[in-house]
Structures are given as structure tokens and as C-alpha cells.
Amino acid sequence: MTPTAAGALDRLAATIAARKGADPETSWTARLLAKGPEKCAQKFGEEAVEAIVEAVRGDRAALVSEAADALFHLLVMLAARDVTLADVEAELARREGTSGLAEKAARKK
């Protein structure tokens, strides 16, 4: 069965969580996680910069590819600190309907 786009992030997050205990010799994700949160953060930063470069260049296909890499490495970085996609989704839901300007102003107080 071919996976669909719907739920792809949830499936990816579940795969990453499953790799946390995997043998680093058999899984790229397990290998990255075994290097610690700092390395995971560094790799996410590298991938984010690559996505930014493609956004500036205007190459849509390359941006989509680099954005997928950045999302993957963001999820790995979160997993390295035991933060789940559900945690981030809950924070987004909490912010939903709040003006970005009002939310920023509330943080300054």
C-alpha cells in the first residue's frame, strides 16, 4: 500500500520514536539520535539553512525537497529532547485564533 500525504508527519514522528532504541549501526535516525541532542540540533540547523537558500533561489522543487529534510530533522531534534509532535501540535492549537501581534505583546509583559 502506498502511503498518502495525510498523516505523513504523524507516521514519520512514530518512525523516529521507534528508532530511538534501535541499533545505530542499522539506522541513520538511530545513529543521529545516539550522537545526542546537540548533533541533532546542528543537523536541523544545516537543513533549515538549505531550505532557506532554496526559498531565496526560487526553485520550488528544491525547496520542497529541502523543506522535507528540514521537517525530518526538526522531528529528530524534538525526539532527542523527548518532545513529541503532539506536544508541538498542542501548542499550535493553544495559539490558534490568537492574533500574532497580541500573542507577541503578551510575552513582553
From TrEMBL:
- Location, primary (coarse class): cytoplasm
Q: Which GO terms describe its cellular component?
A: cytoplasm
Name recorded for this polypeptide = Phosphoribosyl-ATP pyrophosphatase
Pathway it works in: Amino-acid biosynthesis; L-histidine biosynthesis; L-histidine from 5-phospho-alpha-D-ribose 1-diphosphate: step 2/9
Return the broad EC class.
hydrolase
Q: Which key words tag this protein in UniProt?
A: Amino-acid biosynthesis, ATP-binding, Cytoplasm, Histidine biosynthesis, Hydrolase, Nucleotide-binding
Q: Which residues form the signal peptide?
A: none
Reactions catalysed according to its record: 1-(5-phospho-beta-D-ribosyl)-ATP + H2O = 1-(5-phospho-beta-D-ribosyl)-5'-AMP + diphosphate + H(+)
